[in-house]
Backbone:
């Protein structure tokens, strides 16, 4: 790589990382020459290259200015035939194998479902846990039996109330992560053989819940910008019996959209009209990029048909596996199933999280995490568009920490996954997010980890692999 | 209470607690008078009372000697009609309500299902947990995905191997307590609507597993001395389709028996002949009163039909909820169900227990616990026989820490439970251990807590309540 190219890359990266923001003037030719210890000519070459890349623009007499980065293109929504038949679900083997492969600790973890833990207040929470453990007795096991530790329940209810979500603390049941909350919610409202409507693509935990109970899934087209196609869902409901609908209205994994309030209301009303329960997975609720926490389906639920599920795994600590359900009118059933399924959620982690929430800077922590993710979403998006071949399209995440990438149609994401693994890079193959083959040429990328040279090299390699396969 | 009665009680308690053992001489009249600072006459009265109670005997010219305590009578085995129909299971509400009532922390916890934690090395395990938490990262979450932490699995396998149980570490799957192990095992081998054979009485977790999956239970008479009636089970199998058999061959809760090897083999052979899987709950395996750890059904299993479930909750720490399954030929299904059910068992507790097992005195701890429980079993047995009215019969626990008490037939254990609760005493009503009404006049008592004046008073009160109701 030539010296001027190196300089151009360096400046572009700084822009991508938000060091320089749109409209800001960068160093003059002379200043840059001094600063970087290179000749005037090299800087001129570098700036010309940056201009051709659309990173900066010249304004006569004023100098070089950072341009607005091009808006990433939204991924196309694959057309899903409405006549689709409900299918049996068996994706867990693939998902487990994929998760296991992430074990290779020196791999670049673009396929990880977990957020980068280094941003999390793990030390602080553990100090609480340690203090609690010292005064812990078996009585706590009994105190914190389902529905769970009363103070933790109160703290969770308080956060909802502060965000305008109507919550009765008596409705909350602590679970082992959102996984268990979703499983129990589904078991409370549907039985083996029933058909359940899910988004397409959908987060695989939803498919796991269906698979676990031997139900059938019907996939409803879901738009990367605003969520499940409610009209299509209405037509499906007219055609067949749907026992429940499972959705992720905020920052869906993998698409990253936030359903607009109007759409959420429309969905809740449609389901209410047919008395169909809605299982809402809201694990990314705290990781919004906008000004305020988004609404939930609960905000529009008049009949108690929404079973709201969430956890602290994506926003505070994945290791404690503390989740909860607010199951509306199905509260008694879910509480009973929780007791039957795992008896109780371990007590020390429940109390540690409650203590942290009461005493510590959870909001400050969240503000920081949101800022970082929002920033890294921009970087990851720009880098994918830069390194991947033409025909690549990406989502525009409005929260969370994953990017959904549509590759040229000939690329098989499972083959890409294998090839990437051989280069110590993991990705989330699109096949994990559906019972069908619609997302064979899609991948999910985790951008929660700090952007660095290794990530950039990995993305460049991925881009090359995709280009070869396309 | 008169002075001589107080002295007699004090000495009797010392005997019950094993301070003086059978055949040992106690203080002479003169020595006792000096020692206790009371008159000769008081001691004479006290010793006479003790003689009349059968606690001591006089040997002419030699003095007063401790007598062998009367052997407790074994509880009768209620006769269960073999024509019994499989019944729907719905006991969880009662059990949860009972567990919750134990929350009253100043109540005497005779109804608690948990062992007294003060004997457990909680501090030590927490030191490990704290050390692990400090170096923990999200990678551990992935490393310890199902089947679980490799070192913990190895340590568990090592203990089995050392006790002559044939184990392939690759068969072990870490779960959230034995509860989850039992649930997943049952789900792996049977489906909703199937009929499952259980002991009668049975540990309620077995009934919960059946209830959770919408199966039916058929109860097989189970003898307090040697376990499930294998001949009766054979006849039931001849009459109807049994999808699985759930048993607790060692120190069954509530009966406390240890099935003799011959019976275990007979049971395994019977089930193997009909290709019926056996779910073995062996959570009390380490709490034996004999010389060596008892055999398991695994020892006799040639066809991989035994799904063995256990945990550390009864012998090391109830708070960590670390259990495991060794599901024989059903390994793949159970591992998949574990992943679907709760994704993973929290990592830090897994590693903390592994570290403790590798570095610490687990065997020394267990030797101590066994000694204490064996001793307290004797005290509790003697006290029940002393305070409860005629017609009371008790089990002879060979391990674990619960006593099964048959009350005079007119006593309703649920009414007794309510009356006891009003006196700040909890008990385990017999109705929790069956889907039928056979054990209405039985109760389960926990004797893991150190025997003291409060416990003795509680037992006296219980005895009075029973006498009133009888």
Residues:
């Amino acid at each position: 790589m030539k010296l001027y190219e190196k300089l151009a890359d360096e400046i572009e990266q700084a822009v991508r990382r938000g060091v320089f923001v749109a409209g800001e003037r960068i160093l003059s030719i002379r200043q840059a020459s001094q600063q970087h210890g290179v000749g005037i000519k090299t800087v001129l070459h570098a700036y010309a290259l940056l201009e051709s890349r659309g990173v900066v623009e010249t304004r006569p007499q004023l100098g070089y200015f950072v341009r607005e980065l091009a808006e990433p293109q939204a991924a196309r929504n694959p057309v899903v035939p409405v006549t689709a038949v409900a299918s049996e679900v068996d994706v867990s083997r693939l998902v487990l194998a994929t998760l296991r492969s992430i074990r290779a600790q020196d791999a670049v973890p673009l396929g990880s479902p977990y957020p980068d833990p280094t941003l999390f207040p793990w030390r602080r929470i553990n100090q609480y846990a340690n203090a609690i453990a010292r005064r812990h007795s078996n009585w706590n096991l009994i105190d914190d039996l389902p529905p769970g530790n009363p103070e933790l329940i109160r703290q969770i209810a308080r956060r909802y109330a502060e965000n305008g979500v109507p919550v009765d603390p008596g409705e909350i049941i602590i679970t082992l992560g959102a996984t268990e909350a979703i499983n129990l919610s589904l078991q409370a409202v549907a039985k083996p053989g029933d058909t359940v409507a899910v988004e397409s693509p959908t987060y695989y935990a939803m498919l796991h819940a269906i698979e676990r109970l031997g139900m059938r899934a019907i996939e409803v087209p879901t738009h990367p910008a605003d969520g499940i196609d409610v009209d299509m869902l209405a037509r499906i409901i007219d055609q067949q019996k749907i026992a429940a609908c499972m959705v992720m209205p905020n920052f869906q994994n993998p698409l990253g959209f936030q359903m607009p309030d109007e759409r959420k209301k429309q969905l809740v009303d449609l389901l209410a009209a047919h008395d169909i329960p809605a299982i809402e997975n809201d694990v990314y609720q705290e990781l919004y990029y906008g000004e305020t926490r988004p609404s939930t389906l609960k905000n529009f639920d008049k009949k108690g048909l929404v079973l709201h599920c969430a956890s602290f795994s994506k926003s505070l600590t994945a290791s404690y596996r503390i989740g909860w359900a607010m199951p509306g009118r199905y509260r008694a059933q879910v509480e009973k199933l929780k007791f039957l399924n795992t008896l109780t959620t371990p007590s020390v982690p429940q109390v540690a999280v409650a203590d942290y929430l009461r005493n510590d800077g959870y909001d400050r922590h969240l503000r920081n995490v949101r800022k970082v993710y929002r920033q890294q979403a921009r970087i990851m998006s720009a880098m994918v568009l830069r390194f991947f071949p033409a025909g690549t399209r990406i989502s525009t995440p409005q929260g969370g920490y994953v990017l959904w990438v549509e590759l040229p149609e000939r690329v098989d994401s499972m083959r890409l996954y294998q090839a990437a693994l051989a280069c110590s890079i993991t990705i989330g193959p699109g096949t994990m997010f559906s019972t069908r083959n619609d997302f064979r040429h899609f991948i999910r990328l985790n951008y929660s980890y700090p952007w660095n040279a290794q990530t950039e090299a990995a993305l460049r390699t991925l881009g090359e692999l995709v280009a070869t396969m396309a």
